[in-house]
Specification:
Elements: H1 8-29, H2 36-59, H3 63-67, H4 71-96, H5 100-121, H6 128-148, H7 153-170, H8 176-199, H9 211-218, H10 220-237, H11 240-246, H12 249-261, H13 268-295
Helix pairs in contact: 1-10, 1-12, 2-4, 2-8, 2-10, 4-7, 4-8, 5-6, 5-7, 5-12, 5-13, 6-13, 11-13
């Protein structure tokens, strides 16, 4: 048998997407003085024209056909939109309140949550190694909760919201970018109403906190869309099981930012929890890695 080389373009796109997601806390640190709800509203509103722009370039005359959805799909996209918005809100709040380390732990735990959700809702078989991995991750999380005297709510919430978002999108035959456009569009009006109400209050940051903050809010839509475009390019050229390994790049970068740039406290409890999660990820990933290597061979 001959072995194919990994597609360089796909690998470069994957590295770009997950590196961007790993560094995105730096972007939202610039909006630390802005309320998380206002940042979320702007992220939704500016994502709509940004997505329309990129979809118009890619699809051209077929854009309207790509955006046609069945009523049942629209109903599900409303639910997925609320779920991903909750994930964005928790992430933005966590970054603003110096919990980047918790976001890293949450996104490290997401693949393990995906395995559990697949077993519970999709009736996927859970091999012995993956079962052991899930149990080790649970032990690490429980130990961190005991050590801190409280559950790591940020990490748990991020992992659960992103896990359920992926589960619901998996059951929809909707492409990522049109789906995200629908999700953002369905939330556009509530976000706009919120910003209009906020403009009557004294707490609004937009147009009142300097040009730098205004530009960061406006381009927050691009921070949503650009890595997704790279991710889509990578997904077209790489096996999904190989692509899954690149996703660990983002929380690794966030982890390094939290500890070495933002000097967040890294306790013994965090060390145990991260060690358990990383070991669990290794166990959970063994079989997908084997399948990916077999797919790379003819």
């Amino acid at each position: 048998m001959t072995e194919h080389k990994l597609d360089r373009g796909g690998a470069a796109a994957a590295v770009s997407a997950f590196t961007f997601w790993g560094l995105v806390p730096v972007y939202y640190k610039g909006l630390q003085t802005v309320g998380a709800w206002e940042v979320l509203a702007h992220r939704i509103i500016w994502a709509v024209p940004t997505l329309l722009f990129f979809l118009a370039i890619r699809e051209r005359k077929n854009i309207l056909q790509k955006l046609r959805m069945a009523k049942s799909d629209i109903a599900w996209l409303t639910l997925t939109g609320v779920t991903v918005a909750a994930n964005w809100l928790i992430f933005v709040w966590a970054v603003a309140h110096d919990h980047v380390l918790d976001t890293s732990l949450g996104y490290f735990a997401t693949p393990i949550v995906n395995v559990v959700l697949g077993c519970v809702f999709l009736k996927e078989r859970l091999p012995v190694l993956q079962t052991v991995g899930v149990m080790i991750a649970a032990v690490g999380t429980l130990y961190l909760a005991w050590f801190l005297g409280r559950p790591p709510w940020i990490s748990i919430s991020l992992a659960l919201t992103f896990g359920f978002y992926g589960l619901m999108r998996k059951r929809l035959t909707v492409q990522p970018m049109p789906g995200l456009l629908w999700e953002s569009s369905l939330m556009f009006l509530p976000a706009l109403v919120y910003l209009l109400w906020l403009s009557t209050q004294t707490s609004q940051a937009f147009l009142h906190s300097g040009a730098g903050v205004d530009l960061l809010l406006i381009f927050s839509g691009l921070t949503t869309v650009l890595p997704l475009i790279w991710f889509n390019m990578a997904a077209q050229k790489l096996p999904l099981s190989i692509l899954g390994f690149f996703q660990y790049l983002a929380p690794c970068i966030s982890f390094l930012l939290a500890v070495f740039l933002y000097n967040e406290e890294f306790t013994y409890g965090h060390a145990v929890a991260f060690a358990c999660i990383w070991f669990a990820l290794a166990l959970v990933s063994i079989e997908p890695f084997r399948r990916a290597r077999r797919r790379l061979r003819v």
